[in-house]
């Protein structure tokens, strides 16, 4: 008997109407937005795959919890519920809330980094690297080479290359490395996970040299799912147990709660180092708010606490990753080039292969995101040369090997029918790809340019 179909482990209770637009309307909207999908109005978007950050559908329990918000300025009961679940599921004894993940990145960078330091990790992420650079550090990528190849089938392309890390330690000295961090799965590599085996080897190497190891645990449950599915010895373990085993390897972690926890706002900075915690608790008051609310309402913390309990449910995470896999398989059926293996939170289109006639200087991924919107009203985002930014020393563009468009799936939001429509639309763009020309950047902000840059069509 062949494998039977499965369905989402939830049913729809509330619906939100979405606007249907015509092609002329979309052509005008994308031109007005400077061919940057971040600058589109959400009212002009049919299927929104820009990001899974804060765009997820909360459960009935979470919405009920929003009514239980204790909005006291200090000592909210929602804080203590959230703190308890962070200790239980992440295994970290100390915690401060922040309004979102990049706020936690900012605080930990100010605490751990001194000017001239090095930070090493398994590929950069945009806001993470910027906070590290603003604190005076230089980021060094020590991910395995396979991560930079969109077609490589390696099941754990988020692994750190131990030889690269050892060579870096020898080159600059352990004291010069502020910390090593691992993200899982790795967003910029196409949502690729790291293995538990590699994590423990990295932990041992860092411990040997007295180097801190921190975790970007924003999508840690997706990484736990891939370990369960792909790594020997983990098939029978629960997502909660694997998450805890991963976190036990780290000194601390930061989380954008807007992903795994399925809430609209919120962040976490947690650690087992009391001294770091005390510094973070002091800084969160300066930048975010009282250390028992950290820029959040009590109701937001209640939803986060419930979200932690829901995110480790196997059926929930299986359906989440399974929806992304379904989309990827469908696009492959149409011949559309994507990053493989298929990631956990998004399907990543290989814009280099999609538009081989468009030079990277003409922003093929940015072009592709704009073309997909015009064709269908589907909003995606660029993850290539625009996101990579400029070298802070030379001011020249960084040219990453990966020139990608990310189709990011909000949790519990879209149906299989939405995916079918979206995939057919992308296939239509692919069929007409030879007619498409690239873009020219006409406005560029100094930092995180992909959010606000504007373009026009190249001649």
Q: Return the structural class.
A: alpha/beta
Distinct helical segment count? 16
Tally of structural domains: 2
In the sheet with the most strands, the strands line up as 2-8-7-6-5-3-4
- The CATH superfamily name of the largest domain is Type I PLP-dependent aspartate aminotransferase-like (Major domain)
The major pleated sheet works out as: 7 strands, mixed
Low-confidence stretches: none
Order of helices and strands: HEHHEHEHEHEHEHHEEHHHEHHEEHEHEE
Spatial shape = globular
Radius of gyration: 21 Å
Q: What is the subunit arrangement here?
A: single chain
Helix content: 25-40%
CATH fold topology of the largest domain: Aspartate Aminotransferase, domain 2
Give a concise summary.
This protein has helices at 23-32, 60-66, 77-90, 101-112, 126-134, 162-172, 196-209, 220-230, 239-247, 274-287, 298-311, 314-333, 351-354, 364-376, 385-388, 416-431; strands at residues 47-48, 94-98, 118-121, 138-141, 177-183, 213-216, 252-256, 267-271, 346-350, 378-379, 381-383, 404-408, 439-443, 454-457. The protein has 459 residues and is α/β, with parallel strands linked by helices.
Please describe what this structure looks like:
This protein has helices at residues 23-32, 60-66, 77-90, 101-112, 126-134, 162-172, 196-209, 220-230, 239-247, 274-287, 298-311, 314-333, 351-354, 364-376, 385-388, 416-431, and strands at residues 47-48, 94-98, 118-121, 138-141, 177-183, 213-216, 252-256, 267-271, 346-350, 378-379, 381-383, 404-408, 439-443, 454-457. The strands form four sheets. The chain has a seven-stranded mixed sheet, sandwiched between helices. It has a three-stranded antiparallel sheet with strand order 9-12-11. It has a two-stranded parallel ribbon with strand order 1-10. The protein has two domains: 23-52 and 314-457, Alpha-Beta Complex (Aspartate Aminotransferase, domain 1), CATH 3.90.1150.10; 62-311, Type I PLP-dependent aspartate aminotransferase-like (Major domain) (Aspartate Aminotransferase, domain 2, 3-Layer(aba) Sandwich), CATH 3.40.640. By secondary structure, the protein is an alpha/beta fold. It is built from 16 helices and 14 strands. Helix 5 links the parallel strand 3 (118-121) and strand 4.
